[in-house]
Write a structure and sequence with these properties.
mainly alpha
Length: 167
Amino acid sequence: MVAPIRQSRAADAPRALYTPDQRARRDATVWTRVQGVLAILQFAVFLVSLALVLRWALTGEGYAAATVSIVVKSGVLAAIMVTGSIWEKVVFDRWLLAPAFFWEDMVSFVVIALHGAYVAALLGGWLSPRELIALALAAYVAYALNAAQFVMKLRAARLQGAAGVSA
């Protein structure tokens, strides 16, 4: 019988999200602050828009306001995606899909695709109002999942920073 191979404790240790150099770049760049401001703005726009969308879905009132709010949410999303890729380039030297944020970026692609599909369908007149609102709600569910990913990643980064975990 062959004894199992023991892995080193280093393999079991949590991997840091940032190397010391990446953490320094993250802390020094204005894009970190821009991302923080846009994330808060986007979440506020999301909450207002969600309320307007649900109001229309439940009462049939306020379709124009719901539509404008979804377009505004899509615009803020585009801004955070562009500035987020700049942030990744500064911090990780990759425009997107840095290993530390690979899955967050992948889900972000789904989120931006759904928002983009909404805007295209709205402008193209391809869907009914009910179908457009359903598409917007699908985009919002994806956004909520993506936002949760980023919140968990931010929490992990804070915990690792406090614990002194390095790559």
